[in-house]
Amino acid sequence: MNKQRSLFFNVDWFVISTYLILCVIGWFNIHAAVYDPMNPSIIDLDTNYGKQLIFIISAFMIGFAILLFDNKFFNTFSPIFYGTSILLLILVLIIGRNVGGNQAWIPISSFRLQPSEFAKFATCLLLARYLSSGNLKVQELQTQLIAAFIILLPTGLILLQPDAGSALTFSSLILVLYREGLSGYFLVIEGICILLFVLTVLYNKYLVLFGLFITAGILTHFYRKNRKILTLIGSSLLFSVLFVFSVDFTYIKILKTHQKNRIDVILGKVDDPRGVGYNLNQSKIAIGSGGLWGKGYLQGTQTKYNFVPEQSTDFIFCTVGEEWGFTGCFVVICLYLFLLIRIINIAERQRSSFSRIYGYGVASILFFHIFINIGMTIGLIPVIGIPLPFLSYGGSSLWSFTILLFILLKFDSNRMGII
Amino acid sequence: MNSFFARKFVVQGIFIVITLILLTRLFYIQVISDEYILSAENNVIRRLPIYPARGVVLDRNAKILVQNEPVYDLMIIPLEVKPFDTLEFCKLIGIDKKGFDRRFKKARSYSPYKASIFEKQLSVQIYAALQEKLSNFAGFFVQNRTVRRYPDSIAAHFLGYIGEVNQKVIENSKGFYNQGDYHGITGIERSYEELLRGRRGVQNLLVDALNRPKGTYADGKYDTVAVAGEQMISSLDKDLQKLGEQLMKNKIGSIVAIEPSSGEILSFVSSPGYDPNLMVGRQRGNNYMTLLNDKYKPMFVRPIQAEYPPGSIFKVVNALVAQQFGMIDENTYFFCPGGYRYGRSSFMGCTHVHGSIGLKGSITESCNTYYGYTYARMIDKAGMRPINAYKKWHSAVSAFGIGTALGIDLPGERNGLLPSAEFYTKRFRSDRWGSAFTISLSIGQGELGITPLQMANVMAIVANRGFYYKPHLIKAIGEKRVIREEFLKKNSAGIDPKFFDVVIDGMSAVVNQASGTAWFSKIPDIEMCGKTGTVQNPNGKDHSVFVAFAPRKNPKIAIAVVVENAGFGATWSAPIASLLVEKYINKKITRPKAYMDRLLEANLLPGYEKIIRKSDSDSSNYKKGTTQPKKISNE
User: Fold this and answer.
1) Which of A319, A381, B96, B448 has its CA 20 to 30 A from that of B70?
2) Which domain holds residue B336?
3) Is A374 close to B22, i.e. CB distance below 8 A?
């Protein structure tokens, strides 16, 4: 009894409340997205919102169950979780169901399991366990390589499905490594790479190369006395030139047409709202027509009449935007921001580095999903099919985000007990 | 604690910055830009036009002349089409594979998402056959519409036809017409277009991404209902019109019958005519071209577009004008030696040697000599210069509605020709000309041009003893039976009523007295007053003309009949007119069958023997539109 009480005392109720509010917001918006004004029905378990209600209840039960586990359990079994998800990822390639071009689902009776969702927390756990073990230093190359391997193994398997969107989420774990001491240059390099990528796709690669040489020339002129910086400039230049060529090659030869189209639409290279730009254009129209206050609950027309594809899953934010307007979007985004900052704070107050590293992993993965998903619905980034945490319809994603979050809450509730 | 604790703030900073970027972007597209709100409305609201039914046209006894019949347009949404048995489909709607591909390509290039017309105006039969199997052909559906239907296939020239608007009409209509709309092109369909077409309604529908209707927008707050076109009650008598068209079969010419007391046109026949149903349906284009190329010009609206020198019937006008001018009276006699001598050596022949002849006799026996003298008196002995006397005569004749269009409610009416004094001054290069120069005007020949409508109107004036109402074809518009103001106005011909007695006496004798030129056309119990005319035709056989009104007391009908290339007025035109008058007044015909058969069977087309075979094959060229009823007419 005493233990139970202390558990509830120590659980972070701010995070749980935010989590529940987001789930409820999600449920109402899924209801609105599939609501048919011609045949209104209250609750029907065959519809998406009916199923989502079951998902929410079961997710909460899973979360509660996690709180009852022993604290050591997750640390001890993290290699097994990781191994199981790797096995499932391999299995899905063999027996998986192909939905929408991605072989990402394992059918279990009437539901479908998406192993890539569970790979997220498994990878987080193993990464946390590895980085917190012994006296490792993230600055060392060996550590970096092993950490990269832990991250890249599931990424590679998911890419084979091929589900580029889910695979990309693992790149967010670089934030974890950064917090644990990875040089800030990596973040800068990542930023420069993105910039170069966009410029190369958008403009002629020779123009970009010309710009690179000019920049390098100017920098060389200013730092001509500093040999160390000159070397840095030289190697950066070499790296950049190679990168530009490889992007050009990748873009033309490797990327699939639909992926290329999505990038082209975002960068404004093509203007074809009926064809490849349809999703994005309709999504922007739905959100944009919401105005400041929105059209009102169940009053949205764009999302209701199927103009927006995937309106209850990846594009659920369109319903929020259309029916609740800027006000609703502001509230939802602020709830997310509050959740993220709270998670970071929770991570920092952990005594064990395992819990802290895991907390950063949770924040990074949530952050990546939120930013990419909302960014894609409003045309900031290419259309990448990943769900919006807690809002999008779907059992696998809701459960996996719940597990991800509640494991952290479990660690946090026991933070006092661990020396 | 960890040495990299400060990096917490970098990570949280990144979260905040990204959040701000998202919110800024959202604020822009939701609050600042209104582009997306407009796009959303375009997305979801379809403004569906609701076509009103075009106004129905009835005859004077409320029998239907033209009505609307449903037809079925086959529509296609190319994106929703799934593979199906093309061959069966083509067979069902009667097209070939090539035609199918062409239509499909056209629809696709218009829009893959939106519905467009695949095949127009399917008949009820084809529609019924197709409807059963339509579920096999995804992406196709049927939309109904109405087309014009003429149950008796009569009065084509009067009713006119409708057709699709062209680009110019669309531009001039200030947004009323859209591509694919129909408007009146000829006849009353055109002159009453604004009333017949009705007002289009709009339904604002919410549609989903696949263009499927999902309900009304704002509960129909912005919808408007379609207002059907006004019903037109025409002045035509359907039975009379039908008989007239039968009698004029295989003849070139016109019949115009007017009710003198109102100016309402009772019959309006232009021959050769055509079946108005030919201008409806899928074969319309072919039929139109065949009609256009027909050597007898069936599209020509002869009652208002053909101009003839009126011939002897013009003597009636001259007799009245001369009396009004005080130049002659009922007791004026002239001596007819078989012709009228004028100028130094010119001679205008007369049909007979009439001897001494009075005004009444001059009408009954159609004496040219009498009118030679009468005309000479009016022009030369008026106490003024002949040119001024002519101007006076000109304006008196104009008052009969001759030389200017009467303003009937049909498009394309011609003025006819009544030459002005200036015309002759120019021709003779001097203004010193007298009656001798223009003597043929005395007997209605020469430069005169009068339409059959104007001839009938002259008879209406005589029947009314001095006035006429503007002839018109629509006697009442809509439920309220509105009649146009202009048709209620009495127009004076400027002749004192008392001068008509003698003329009408003469005209009655034309028909009812054994010596009259139209004795052959006497109707047993109706006193018809008429005047025959034979119009000289430089290109062939003379035209036969007869004008009349009946009964003498309280006239009910004034009529003009012109049969081209038919010789004397008494031979063909007068009997036709007499039958129509009898039919109209007594509602039945008592004349022997042989009398009628002679008229019905006569073929007076020029050189008909040579072309009779060809005209048979011509008529088979008219492909009946698929909306044709089985029995086309009782001809």
Assistant:
1) B96
2) 239-274+302-604
3) yes
